[in-house]
Write a structure and sequence with these properties.
single chain; mainly alpha
Length: about 325
């Protein structure tokens, strides 16, 4: 297992380097003068020149990239071109918010997606399965922004059970923290839960057709042992893949969710940087997002290795 983790981690290094080069090249690929675009139309030539020098845009591309990459490797993501604040500090401050939504999303998937997919697979073709198919179809078809709006209208405006916007850290109490992440987590978790349920159902149906499962049933093994040991262990691989993909792409969904619910997370930070043309922040967010996706894929590989020993030696 350790060899698998080291091999997967080593293969991620060149990919991260390519992503870092692509992220840093964003500024070079922009038409016109990036410093003038950041400074705005009202800026004087002297202000544009000072900003260009502060951002290092007057140096060759290779020199700027190597300097930026060296700073990133030392933990310095640079400074915001708009506020001058440390991007590393901002990411560290906002990451717990997005991580909280990710944890809540995972709980929604575990509470909704796994039981629905399991019941569909076990009772395929029956009323439970048909109800599950309808439920997952609705979950896959509902847009995130529409679901978020409905949740706010019902639970925050009409029932007044949950706060519509804002975030409370765990240091202020678990109850306050949970109240602020319930609706964002449900918004992102419904689609992911529907995907996981669909994949788990398909995996269970495929596993039921295998000879070793039919043999286990023929031997009279208890249903709980057949389902837990033989069916779920082999049917969960597609569902784990989907779950890893959804968690890896969480930041893209967080852009919408954090904007609607007013959460000061990485998604909100990214959208603000885009609107303000804060290119150093955009570069850093792209790199951080790629790292999150690679970590999610690494976790999927580790789970695969635990479920399927063949993966450890592949």
């Amino acid at each position: 297992m350790l060899l698998l983790v080291l091999r997967r981690a080593a293969s991620a290094v060149p990919l991260l380097l390519l992503v870092s080069l692509g992220a840093f090249s964003l500024v070079a690929l922009l038409p016109g003068d990036p410093a003038a675009a950041i400074a705005g139309e009202a800026a004087s030539p002297e202000q544009v020149a000072a900003l260009r020098q502060r951002l290092g845009l007057d140096e060759p591309f290779v020199v700027r990239y190597l300097s930026w990459l060296g700073n990133v490797l030392s933990g310095d993501l640079g400074q915001s071109a708009i506020t001058g604040h440390s991007i590393t500090d901002e990411v560290a401050r906002r990451a717990p918010v997005t991580a909280s939504v990710a944890v809540g999303t995972l709980l929604v998937v575990l509470v909704l997606g796994l039981p629905i997919g399991l019941l569909q697979g076990i009772y395929a073709g029956r009323l439970v399965d048909r109800a599950g198919l309808l439920t997952t179809a609705v979950g896959l078809g509902v847009p995130n922004f529409w679901l978020a709006t409905i949740l706010v209208g019902v639970f925050a405006v009409q029932l007044r059970l949950l706060p519509a916007t804002g975030y409370a850290p765990l240091s202020e109490g678990f109850g306050a923290w949970a109240e602020h992440i319930v609706m964002p987590s449900v918004t992102l978790g419904v689609f992911a839960a529907a995907e996981v349920a669909r994949q788990l159902r398909t995996g269970i149906l495929h596993a039921n057709e295998q000879a070793y499962v039919r043999t286990a049933w023929a031997k009279g093994m208890p249903p709980r042992r057949v389902i837990g040991k033989h069916i779920l262990k082999n049917a969960s691989a597609p569902a784990i893949t989907v779950l890893g993909i959804r968690l890896g792409h969480l930041l893209s969904g967080a852009v919408i969710v954090e904007t609607i619910f007013g959460l000061p997370g990485l998604g909100k930070y990214a959208i603000d940087a885009i609107f303000n043309r804060d290119f150093p922040v955009i570069q850093a967010i792209v790199l951080v997002s790629a790292a999150i996706v690679l970590v999610a894929n690494l976790l999927v590989d580790i789970v695969y290795g635990a479920l399927n020993p063949k993966v450890r030696i592949s």
